[in-house]
Amino acid sequence: MTTPHDLLPLTPAVFHILLTLADGEKHGYSIMQEVEQISAGRVKMGPGTLYGSIKRMLAAGLIEESDERPDPTLDDERRRYYRLTEFGSRVARAEADRLAALVQTAHSKKLLGNV
Amino acid sequence: MDVLKSSTQLYRLLLRLYPAGFRREYELLMAQAFRDQCRVLGQRGTLGWMALWWRTLADVVRTAAIEHLAAKKGVFMESARFKNHPGRAASLFFLLPGIALSLYYIVTISNGESEGYFLAALAGVAGFGLAWLKIIPQARPWGQFALGFVIGAVSLLVMIIWTPMANLGFLALREPPWPEVRLVVAGVMCLLIIGLLGRWLEAPFRRIYWIVAGVLLVNGVVWAFLPIGPNQYIWWDLAWTWGYSTAILGAVVLSIKLVRRAGIQVLLTALVALGILVSVNLTAEDVAQGSTTYGQLLLLVAYLFPLVICPAWLLFAPTWQAKKRGVLLSWSAMVVGIVVILPILDIFFVPHYFRYPVIVPLPSAFAYVPVLIGLWLAFALYEKTLLQPGSPANTPDSPPGNAPQPIRMES
After folding, report:
1. How does residue A32 score in pLDDT terms, banded at 50, 70 and 90?
2. CA geometry: angle at A60 spanning B265 and B313, to 5°?
C-alpha cells in the first residue's frame, strides 16, 4: 500500500500541476497557463513536460480524467480534463507540509529574507 | 505564409521524436496545447514566436529523451522485479561450462595440447547439476542432489558420446575419409539445434523452410560426391568446400527464420556479434598470421555469446520469456558461431597455412549441443514446476498491478 510520503519529494512540475488542480478540474493548456501564473512566470511548462507529468501522475493515481465538461457548448470536446483524486490531494498536502517544514527550518536558521 | 499553420506542422513533425506509445496517447493533446500557445504568444510578434520556439525546442529535446528513458526504465523495472526470481540464479549457472571451457582452451592452446573434452564434460555436469539444484528449491535436499546428479550424469554421457561423433571427420580433419559423414552429421546437428529451438518456440516451421534446407543439404551431399576435373584432389577439395557451405546455408536459412520469430532484439544482437566476429577475424588475420593467438582470439570472440550477451540478457530482458529466449539463443548463437561462421571465415578469408589453429579446437564446440539440450530441458521443467498459474514464482513476471509508479522522471 503506497502512502503519500512514499512519493515525496515531488518534482516541481508535478507539484505545480497538483496545485493548479486543487481548485477544480482543468484541461492541459489551462494547466500550463495557471502554472505560469502561480509561479510568477518562473515555471514555463511546455506540452512535453505537461503531458509527460500527466502520464506519470495518472499512473500513480494522483489525478484522473474527468468525463464532465464545464460547458460543452463553449469547449472543444477533444480536450481532456483532469482532476485530483483523493490520494492526489493527500500527496499534495504532504508535499506542502514538507515544504512548509523546510521553510520553517530555513527561517530558524535565519536564511529567509531578501536576497 | 501562415505562421500558425506552419508552426503547428513543424511541431507535429517534432512530436515524432517521442516514443510511439507516448505519441499514440498524447500527440493530439500536445499539438492542441501547442496551438493554444501559438495563438497567445504569436500575438506578440516575432519576439513572441522566437520565445515560443526557443521554449518548445528545449521542451521537446528534454522531454523526448525523458520519455525514451522512461520507456526503457519500464523495462528495467520489470527486470528488477525478476531479481529474486529463482530462475535468475539458476540461469547463471548455465554459464559454468562456457567459463570452464574458455579457460581450458586458453591454457591448452597456449601449450599446444589437444581439446578439453573431459573438462567440457565435467563443466557440463557441474552446470546442469547446480542449475537443477537451484531450479527446484522446494524439493527435499536429498531429492535435489539425486536429481542434480542424474541430470549431470546424463549430460556427461551425452557429451562423451557426442564429442567423438562430432570429431568423426567433420571438422577436426581437413581431408577426412568420409565426406558424406561430415555432411550428414552437420545436417543432423543443425536440424537438431533448430528443431529443439523450434519446439521451444511452440510453433512448427512452415514446410517451405524444411524444403529449402533439405534441397541445400542434398545439394551439398551431391557436390561432395563429385571427384571430377583434371586435378582430382583440387576438385574434391572444392566440392567439399561447396558442399559444406551449402549445408551451412541451409542451417542459416532456418536460423534466420528462428531469429525473426524470436524478435528484432535477437536479430540485432546476432548482427552485432557477427560484426565483431568478422572484424576480429580480419584484424587477427593481419596481426597474428601464423600464430596460435589467432585461434584463441576467434574462440574468445565466439565466447562473447555465453559470457557477455547471455548474462546481459538475463539482467535486462523484461520478462521471463525474454530471458529464456536470450539464454537459449546466446548459447545457440555461440554454437552456430563456432560450428558455422568460423569455418566459413576460415575457408574464404584465411590463407591455408594459418587454418590449423582455428580448426583444431572446433569439435569441442559440439560439447555445447548437449548444453543446449540441457538448457531446453531445464527451462521446460522449470516452467512446468514453478511457473504454473498461482505459483509464487510466477509473480515476478506477472503484469504490474495498480501500484503507483514513480513520478520523479522529470522536473
Report:
1. very high
2. 20
Interface of chain A toward chain B, CB-CB under 8 angstroms = 2, 6-7, 10-14, 28-29, 32, 44-57, 59-62, 76, 78-80
Q: Which of B32, B64, B407 sits opposite A14 (nearest CB)?
A: B407
- Residue burial B88-127, b: 16+ Cβ < 10 Å; e: rest: bebbbbbbbbbebbbebbeebbeeeeebbbebbbbbbbbb
Poorest-confidence range of A4-13, B59-68, B96-105?
B96-105
Q: What is the DSSP letter of B406?
A: P
**Per-residue pLDDT, A21:** 94
Percent of chain B residues topping a pLDDT of 70: 17
- Based on its alpha-carbon atoms, the radius of gyration of chain B, rounded to whole angstroms, reads 27
Whole-angstrom distance, CA of residue B21 vs CA of residue B26: 9
A35/B162 Cα distance (integer angstroms) = 71
Q: Which tops the pLDDT comparison, B333 or B80? A: B333
How do residues B279-327 score in pLDDT, each as one tens digit?
444 444 433 444 444 455 555 555 555 555 555 555 555 566 666 666 6
Domain locations in chain B as residue ranges: 3-77, 82-172+263-396
CB nearest A49 (choices: B18, B37, B59): B59
B229 Ramachandran zone, left/alpha/beta (phi>0; psi -120 to 50)? left
Q: Which domains does chain A have, with CATH numbers?
A: 10-108 (1.10.10.10)
Q: Which three cell numbers stand for residue B334?
A: 555461440
Kindly tell me if the per-residue pLDDT of B86 is higher than 60: no
| Predicted TM-score (pTM) of this structure | 0.41
